[in-house]
Amino acid sequence: MDDQTDVARLQGMLLEQFREEADAEQQLVQIRTLMADLRKLFLYYEFGIEEVSTKIEILRKEFEQIHDYSPIEHVRGRLKSHESVFRKALKCGCALTVDSIRGEITDIAGIRITCSFVSDVYWMAEMLSKQPDVTVLQTKDYIAEPKENGYRSLHLIVQIPVFLSTHTEYVPVELQIRTIAMDFWASIEHKLRYKYDSELPEHLAEQISDSARVAAELDQRMGLLRDEVRPSPNGGSDLRH
Ligand SMILES: Nc1nc2c(ncn2[C@@H]2O[C@H](COP(=O)(O)OP(=O)(O)OP(=O)(O)O)[C@@H](O)[C@H]2O)c(=O)[nH]1
Ligand SMILES: Nc1ncnc2c1ncn2[C@@H]1O[C@H](COP(=O)(O)OP(=O)(O)OP(=O)(O)O)[C@@H](O)[C@H]1O
Protein backbone atom coordinates (compact mmCIF):
# COMPACT_ATOMS: atom_id res chain seq x y z
CA MET A 1 0.00 0.00 0.00
CA ASP A 2 1.49 3.39 -0.97
CA ASP A 3 1.48 6.55 1.13
CA GLN A 4 -1.27 8.25 -0.86
CA THR A 5 -3.62 5.30 -0.47
CA ASP A 6 -2.87 5.31 3.26
CA VAL A 7 -3.65 8.99 3.61
CA ALA A 8 -6.87 8.63 1.63
CA ARG A 9 -7.94 5.67 3.78
CA LEU A 10 -7.13 7.60 6.96
CA GLN A 11 -9.18 10.54 5.78
CA GLY A 12 -12.02 8.14 4.96
CA MET A 13 -11.81 6.58 8.43
CA LEU A 14 -11.88 9.97 10.16
CA LEU A 15 -14.84 11.16 8.08
CA GLU A 16 -16.69 7.89 8.69
CA GLN A 17 -16.11 8.31 12.43
CA PHE A 18 -17.52 11.81 12.45
CA ARG A 19 -20.22 11.29 9.84
CA GLU A 20 -22.93 12.32 12.33
CA GLU A 21 -21.39 15.79 12.22
CA ALA A 22 -22.88 17.04 8.97
CA ASP A 23 -21.13 20.35 9.30
CA ALA A 24 -17.50 20.35 8.02
CA GLU A 25 -16.63 22.88 10.72
CA GLN A 26 -17.88 20.50 13.43
CA GLN A 27 -15.95 17.61 11.90
CA LEU A 28 -12.80 19.69 12.13
CA VAL A 29 -13.48 20.41 15.81
CA GLN A 30 -13.93 16.65 16.43
CA ILE A 31 -10.66 15.83 14.65
CA ARG A 32 -8.83 18.50 16.65
CA THR A 33 -10.27 17.09 19.89
CA LEU A 34 -9.08 13.58 18.92
CA MET A 35 -5.57 14.90 18.23
CA ALA A 36 -5.48 16.81 21.56
CA ASP A 37 -6.63 13.67 23.44
CA LEU A 38 -3.96 11.64 21.66
CA ARG A 39 -1.26 14.14 22.62
CA LYS A 40 -2.34 13.80 26.28
CA LEU A 41 -2.29 10.00 26.00
CA PHE A 42 1.17 10.09 24.42
CA LEU A 43 2.47 12.15 27.34
CA TYR A 44 1.40 9.35 29.73
CA TYR A 45 3.25 6.85 27.50
CA GLU A 46 6.32 9.06 27.62
CA PHE A 47 6.16 8.96 31.44
CA GLY A 48 5.83 5.17 31.18
CA ILE A 49 9.05 4.98 29.15
CA GLU A 50 10.83 7.19 31.71
CA GLU A 51 9.68 5.01 34.63
CA VAL A 52 10.76 1.72 33.05
CA SER A 53 14.04 3.29 31.88
CA THR A 54 14.79 4.27 35.48
CA LYS A 55 14.10 0.70 36.62
CA ILE A 56 16.49 -0.60 33.96
CA GLU A 57 19.17 1.91 34.94
CA ILE A 58 18.91 0.94 38.63
CA LEU A 59 19.25 -2.76 37.78
CA ARG A 60 22.22 -2.02 35.53
CA LYS A 61 24.08 0.08 38.11
CA GLU A 62 23.45 -2.40 40.91
CA PHE A 63 24.61 -5.33 38.76
CA GLU A 64 27.72 -3.40 37.73
CA GLN A 65 28.56 -2.65 41.33
CA ILE A 66 28.26 -6.29 42.36
CA HIS A 67 29.77 -8.01 39.32
CA ASP A 68 31.98 -5.32 37.82
CA TYR A 69 30.49 -5.69 34.34
CA SER A 70 27.29 -4.48 32.73
CA PRO A 71 24.63 -6.93 31.55
CA ILE A 72 23.34 -4.17 29.23
CA GLU A 73 25.09 -2.81 26.14
CA HIS A 74 22.52 -0.14 25.32
CA VAL A 75 18.93 0.92 25.92
CA ARG A 76 16.71 2.81 23.50
CA GLY A 77 13.27 4.10 24.36
CA ARG A 78 10.93 5.28 21.61
CA LEU A 79 7.45 6.70 21.41
CA LYS A 80 5.63 5.55 18.29
CA SER A 81 4.89 8.40 15.91
CA HIS A 82 1.27 9.48 15.37
CA GLU A 83 1.64 8.41 11.75
CA SER A 84 2.87 4.95 12.71
CA VAL A 85 -0.02 4.58 15.19
CA PHE A 86 -2.53 5.53 12.51
CA ARG A 87 -0.98 3.11 10.03
CA LYS A 88 -1.15 0.31 12.59
CA ALA A 89 -4.78 1.20 13.39
CA LEU A 90 -5.52 0.97 9.67
CA LYS A 91 -3.76 -2.40 9.45
CA CYS A 92 -5.58 -3.94 12.39
CA GLY A 93 -8.93 -2.29 11.60
CA CYS A 94 -9.02 -0.49 14.94
CA ALA A 95 -11.25 2.60 15.17
CA LEU A 96 -9.52 5.97 15.33
CA THR A 97 -10.64 6.76 18.86
CA VAL A 98 -8.45 7.21 21.92
CA ASP A 99 -10.17 4.27 23.66
CA SER A 100 -9.63 1.85 20.75
CA ILE A 101 -6.07 2.97 20.19
CA ARG A 102 -5.11 2.54 23.85
CA GLY A 103 -6.95 -0.79 24.02
CA GLU A 104 -5.54 -2.34 20.88
CA ILE A 105 -2.12 -0.84 20.19
CA THR A 106 0.24 -1.91 22.96
CA ASP A 107 3.56 -0.83 21.47
CA ILE A 108 3.09 2.96 21.54
CA ALA A 109 5.69 3.10 24.32
CA GLY A 110 8.67 0.85 23.58
CA ILE A 111 12.07 0.14 25.04
CA ARG A 112 14.75 -1.97 23.38
CA ILE A 113 17.40 -3.39 25.69
CA THR A 114 20.53 -4.84 24.10
CA CYS A 115 22.52 -7.26 26.23
CA SER A 116 25.83 -9.06 25.71
CA PHE A 117 24.62 -12.59 26.45
CA VAL A 118 21.40 -14.57 26.11
CA SER A 119 21.49 -15.30 29.86
CA ASP A 120 21.50 -11.52 30.51
CA VAL A 121 18.39 -11.15 28.33
CA TYR A 122 16.44 -13.57 30.53
CA TRP A 123 17.94 -12.06 33.71
CA MET A 124 16.70 -8.57 32.71
CA ALA A 125 13.24 -9.92 31.87
CA GLU A 126 13.01 -11.75 35.18
CA MET A 127 14.25 -8.81 37.28
CA LEU A 128 11.75 -6.41 35.68
CA SER A 129 8.82 -8.86 35.69
CA LYS A 130 9.05 -9.59 39.40
CA GLN A 131 8.86 -5.96 40.54
CA PRO A 132 5.59 -5.46 42.44
CA ASP A 133 4.35 -2.50 40.36
CA VAL A 134 5.03 -4.28 37.06
CA THR A 135 2.32 -6.47 35.50
CA VAL A 136 3.34 -8.66 32.58
CA LEU A 137 0.50 -8.58 30.04
CA GLN A 138 2.18 -10.65 27.34
CA THR A 139 5.40 -12.56 26.69
CA LYS A 140 6.64 -13.65 23.26
CA ASP A 141 9.85 -15.64 23.38
CA TYR A 142 11.25 -15.50 19.85
CA ILE A 143 14.59 -16.77 21.22
CA ALA A 144 13.12 -20.12 22.22
CA GLU A 145 10.95 -20.07 19.09
CA PRO A 146 12.44 -17.83 16.38
CA LYS A 147 10.20 -16.40 13.67
CA GLU A 148 10.24 -18.13 10.28
CA ASN A 149 12.68 -15.53 8.86
CA GLY A 150 15.07 -16.16 11.79
CA TYR A 151 14.07 -13.15 13.96
CA ARG A 152 15.04 -13.68 17.60
CA SER A 153 14.26 -11.46 20.60
CA LEU A 154 12.38 -11.65 23.87
CA HIS A 155 9.25 -9.45 23.82
CA LEU A 156 7.30 -8.45 26.90
CA ILE A 157 4.36 -6.11 27.19
CA VAL A 158 4.44 -4.81 30.74
CA GLN A 159 1.99 -2.48 32.39
CA ILE A 160 3.11 0.07 34.96
CA PRO A 161 1.28 2.71 36.99
CA VAL A 162 2.04 6.36 36.30
CA PHE A 163 1.03 8.45 39.31
CA LEU A 164 -0.43 11.80 38.20
CA SER A 165 -1.78 14.67 40.32
CA THR A 166 -5.45 13.63 39.99
CA HIS A 167 -5.34 9.94 39.10
CA THR A 168 -3.18 6.95 38.18
CA GLU A 169 -2.71 5.89 34.57
CA TYR A 170 -1.78 2.29 33.77
CA VAL A 171 0.50 2.34 30.77
CA PRO A 172 1.64 -0.60 28.59
CA VAL A 173 5.29 -0.60 27.51
CA GLU A 174 6.70 -3.00 24.91
CA LEU A 175 10.10 -4.35 25.91
CA GLN A 176 12.27 -5.91 23.24
CA ILE A 177 15.22 -7.57 24.95
CA ARG A 178 17.93 -9.06 22.76
CA THR A 179 21.65 -9.68 22.37
CA ILE A 180 24.02 -7.59 20.24
CA ALA A 181 23.99 -10.35 17.61
CA MET A 182 20.17 -10.45 17.52
CA ASP A 183 20.05 -6.65 17.29
CA PHE A 184 22.60 -6.53 14.47
CA TRP A 185 20.62 -9.10 12.51
CA ALA A 186 17.25 -7.37 13.14
CA SER A 187 18.62 -4.00 12.10
CA ILE A 188 19.93 -5.30 8.75
CA GLU A 189 16.80 -7.36 8.11
CA HIS A 190 14.61 -4.30 8.85
CA LYS A 191 16.59 -2.16 6.37
CA LEU A 192 16.38 -4.86 3.68
CA ARG A 193 12.65 -5.35 4.24
CA TYR A 194 12.13 -1.59 4.00
CA LYS A 195 14.19 -1.38 0.81
CA TYR A 196 12.25 -4.19 -0.85
CA ASP A 197 8.88 -3.13 0.58
CA SER A 198 8.58 -6.41 2.58
CA GLU A 199 9.04 -8.53 -0.60
CA LEU A 200 12.61 -9.82 -0.22
CA PRO A 201 13.99 -11.58 -3.32
CA GLU A 202 14.40 -15.30 -2.65
CA HIS A 203 18.22 -15.29 -2.65
CA LEU A 204 18.25 -12.47 -0.05
CA ALA A 205 15.58 -14.18 2.08
CA GLU A 206 17.79 -17.29 2.12
CA GLN A 207 20.89 -15.29 3.05
CA ILE A 208 19.13 -13.45 5.84
CA SER A 209 17.75 -16.67 7.22
CA ASP A 210 21.23 -18.24 7.05
CA SER A 211 22.73 -15.19 8.81
CA ALA A 212 20.20 -15.68 11.60
CA ARG A 213 21.57 -19.19 12.15
CA VAL A 214 25.14 -17.80 12.27
CA ALA A 215 24.06 -15.10 14.77
CA ALA A 216 22.40 -17.75 16.96
CA GLU A 217 25.56 -19.85 16.85
CA LEU A 218 27.66 -16.82 17.82
CA ASP A 219 25.39 -16.20 20.82
CA GLN A 220 25.78 -19.83 21.83
CA ARG A 221 29.58 -19.68 21.58
CA MET A 222 29.77 -16.40 23.48
CA GLY A 223 27.55 -17.96 26.16
CA LEU A 224 30.05 -20.80 26.57
CA LEU A 225 32.91 -18.29 26.89
CA ARG A 226 30.89 -16.35 29.43
CA ASP A 227 30.42 -19.50 31.50
CA GLU A 228 34.23 -19.71 31.72
CA VAL A 229 34.35 -16.29 33.39
CA ARG A 230 31.04 -16.45 35.28
CA PRO A 231 30.83 -14.13 38.32
CA SER A 232 32.12 -15.99 41.35
CA PRO A 233 29.64 -16.80 44.18
CA ASN A 234 31.22 -14.24 46.53
CA GLY A 235 29.93 -11.50 44.24
CA GLY A 236 33.22 -10.70 42.50
CA SER A 237 33.65 -11.19 38.77
CA ASP A 238 36.52 -12.59 36.79
CA LEU A 239 35.47 -10.56 33.75
CA ARG A 240 37.42 -7.52 34.95
CA HIS A 241 40.74 -9.40 34.44
N1 LIG B 1 13.65 -6.60 12.16
C1 LIG B 1 12.58 -7.29 12.58
N2 LIG B 1 11.84 -6.83 13.61
C2 LIG B 1 10.76 -7.56 14.00
C3 LIG B 1 10.40 -8.77 13.36
N3 LIG B 1 9.31 -9.27 13.99
C4 LIG B 1 9.00 -8.41 14.96
N4 LIG B 1 9.86 -7.37 14.99
C5 LIG B 1 9.83 -6.21 15.92
O1 LIG B 1 9.01 -6.54 17.01
C6 LIG B 1 7.82 -5.74 17.03
C7 LIG B 1 6.65 -6.53 17.57
O2 LIG B 1 6.52 -7.73 16.87
P1 LIG B 1 5.59 -8.92 17.41
O3 LIG B 1 5.89 -9.21 18.85
O4 LIG B 1 5.70 -10.05 16.46
O5 LIG B 1 4.17 -8.26 17.46
P2 LIG B 1 2.96 -8.38 16.48
O6 LIG B 1 1.84 -7.66 17.14
O7 LIG B 1 2.74 -9.81 16.10
O8 LIG B 1 3.52 -7.59 15.22
P3 LIG B 1 3.40 -6.05 14.91
O9 LIG B 1 2.04 -5.86 14.32
O10 LIG B 1 4.52 -5.80 13.92
O11 LIG B 1 3.61 -5.27 16.19
C8 LIG B 1 7.70 -5.23 15.61
O12 LIG B 1 6.95 -4.03 15.56
C9 LIG B 1 9.16 -5.00 15.25
O13 LIG B 1 9.66 -3.82 15.85
C10 LIG B 1 11.20 -9.22 12.24
O14 LIG B 1 10.96 -10.24 11.61
N5 LIG B 1 12.26 -8.43 11.90
N1 LIG C 1 9.85 -1.67 21.55
C1 LIG C 1 10.69 -0.87 20.88
N2 LIG C 1 11.66 -0.23 21.56
C2 LIG C 1 12.54 0.59 20.90
N3 LIG C 1 12.48 0.82 19.58
C3 LIG C 1 11.52 0.22 18.86
C4 LIG C 1 10.57 -0.66 19.47
N4 LIG C 1 9.74 -1.12 18.50
C5 LIG C 1 10.15 -0.57 17.35
N5 LIG C 1 11.19 0.23 17.55
C6 LIG C 1 11.93 1.02 16.54
O1 LIG C 1 11.28 2.28 16.38
C7 LIG C 1 11.32 2.71 15.03
C8 LIG C 1 9.91 3.06 14.58
O2 LIG C 1 9.14 1.89 14.63
P1 LIG C 1 7.56 1.86 14.48
O3 LIG C 1 6.96 1.73 15.81
O4 LIG C 1 7.10 3.00 13.63
O5 LIG C 1 7.34 0.56 13.62
P2 LIG C 1 7.53 -0.97 13.99
O6 LIG C 1 7.37 -1.21 15.45
O7 LIG C 1 8.82 -1.45 13.39
O8 LIG C 1 6.35 -1.63 13.13
P3 LIG C 1 4.78 -1.82 13.46
O9 LIG C 1 4.12 -0.46 13.49
O10 LIG C 1 4.32 -2.66 12.31
O11 LIG C 1 4.66 -2.55 14.79
C9 LIG C 1 12.00 1.57 14.24
O12 LIG C 1 13.36 1.90 14.11
C10 LIG C 1 11.85 0.37 15.16
O13 LIG C 1 12.93 -0.55 15.00
Automatic annotation (TrEMBL):
Domain RelA/SpoT residues, every copy: 77-200
A GO BP entry: guanosine tetraphosphate metabolic process
Keyword annotations from UniProtKB, A to Z: Kinase, Transferase
Keyword Ribosomal protein in record: no
Pfam families listed in its UniProt record: RelA_SpoT
Record EC number: 2.7.6.5
One of the record's GO molecular function terms: GTP diphosphokinase activity
Protein name (record): GTP pyrophosphokinase
Species of origin: Agrococcus casei LMG 22410
